[in-house]
Amino acid sequence: MFEYHCPNPDCQTACDIHEAGCPHEERSRSEIEKAYVDILSVLSRLTCSKKSLKENAHEWDELHDKAFERLVQLGHIAKTDEGYYTIGDHSTRESKRPYSDPLATIYRHGTVAGCHDNGLFALIAFYSHIGLSWEETKKELKDWYERTGTWERGGFTEPSPEALILKKKHIYDEGYGWKTKGQAAREVIDRHRRSRDTSQQESVHS
Fold first, then answer.
1. Do 138 and 190 lie in a common domain?
2. What is d(CA 146, CA 169) in angstroms, rounded to the nearest whole number?
3. Planar angle of CA 161, 163, 164, nearest 5 degrees
4. What's the CATH number where 43 sits?
5. pLDDT number for residue 9
6. What domain range includes position 73?
7. Are residues 142 and 68 in the same domain?
8. Who contacts 72 (Cβ-Cβ below 8 Å, separation ≥6)?
9. Which residues of 170-204 are buried (b: 16+ CB within 10 A; e: fewer)?
10. pLDDT over 80 (residue 113)
11. φ and ψ of 133, to 5 deg
């Protein structure tokens, strides 16, 4: 599993606290993740030169250069015989996966009653932000509902995940708000998980 660590080989933190003297110590965890996602989202759609990659990325700065170098070193980006860059086959899904919270919690555990709307909003806006098509976004969301058991938990008025997703197309078109909605959903998920764990512990000791 690839995680978005600080690209400085002497640091490689996966949080906001960097090693002393790290050149990226002023950069937040979310900024680092975004640099990786900017690169991988382009290469999941295109095979191109580094110049073209920079032109097609959401933005580009020295952090992107270092993230690019690390991705090449780890084999997540490959260079073709013609000298163009492409994403490795094993990384295609990784480029669509959020690794930092609040989205990581939503992606791994799914949502519960009380945060279904915010969780879905956050994922749709995230997929739009990293450049997935609407068809790809729908597929990712359907897989997510099944993999996490979210739909089976209930709390929906729509007859199916497909019907609910189609109602949220406007979120994809707008493509923003994933962080705020994601944080709100994560807080509900964390409370639910703590309550469940407490109940299980009490049951064991009763």
1. yes
2. 20
3. 65
4. 1.10.10.10
5. 80
6. 29-94
7. no
8. 79, 85
9. ebbeeeebbeebbbbbbebbeebeeeeeeeeeeee
10. yes
11. -70, 165
